[in-house]
Please model this.
Amino acid sequence: MIEDKTIQNITKRGVKEIISESEFVELLQSGKKLRLKMGFDPSRADIHLGHVVGLRKLKQLQDLGHEVILIVGDWTAQIGDPSGQSITRPMLTHEDVIANAQSYMDQFFRVVDRNQTQVVWQSEWFGKFSLADVIELTSKFTVAQFLERDDFALRFKEHKPIAITEFLYPLLQAYDSVAIESDVEFGGTDQMFNLLVGRTLQQIKGMRPQQCFMMPILVGTDGINKMSKSLDNYISLDDTANDMYGKIMSLPDSCIVTYFELLTDLPMQELSEIEQQLNTNAMDAKKLLAHTITKTFFDSKIAGESQQNFEKVVQNKEIPDNIPEFQIATAASLNSVLIESGSVTSNSELKRLFKQNAVQMISNQGDTSNIISDIDIQQLESGTVIKIGKRRYLKLI
Model:
């Protein structure tokens, strides 16, 4: 029998809702090796801390001997989104899917145990689907049932188009649960409808319905919106240790306790003490949070170095050591230098940074930095340091 304390930690901390919690606890105590379903859309290859909330729950259950079934949504990713409603679902080639899946798994297995994970590709079953199979699948549900989903209901009410293909995505995700015989599926609260469709389809097929684990939505570094790459408020697992530490330090104080609860193993009693001290000691609490999370994805030594870098560069306004260098031509423009050096990824990002007064020049004499407003500035001197945003630096040689 699993201790009540362990069950409480699994079912309450970092969990928004479980359907059905009593059935899940019964399964957990049964001794059965559970099949834990996690699917991902390989149209995006990055994992950020918002995803880690659910991945940590998978790892907790793996530590009890259960198995993760990771589904690569390669079949649906090659369809794209014909409605035009989702910019995150472009049509992909098979090569794109393979590359994104590899990048995703490299990050995924920094949290989840690779040895207790089975990776399956959606095309293993959908590649054999016939038109008759698709029609049979659609016959299990009604349009009225699907219009209960919030975004469909809103668009229907506002007379906005809903492509028939869009109704297929929840059905295909649900069939994934049938194909792998899922016991538990994980997703954010915004995925509740899709998870429940899977539970219903399993019942229709005469299977024991999966339990649905809904994770809370982690807000991003702006402290307001869901963590998202499109909103540029995300902390990626691919970030450098310095960037990860620095981004966590940029969080509003109101996020500190939530991040501790969802992304660390700090005991709840200690979290209560931190919450009580926020008004007087928020900086120390935030440093502990940044160090703890950075240490999770790197190690204690690197986390300590990141803290030293933050204190030197951000708190004491000093130039960091070992910043990247870029050799400039005689008549190079700052615009071309920042793009060619990889300091910024695109002209649109560069324009946004200039608009936000987020590009500064520090002369080779170490004078106080000056905000640069001229995107085509040509007067670039060797030894000059360019500061881009809050944490990026480039030395010109």
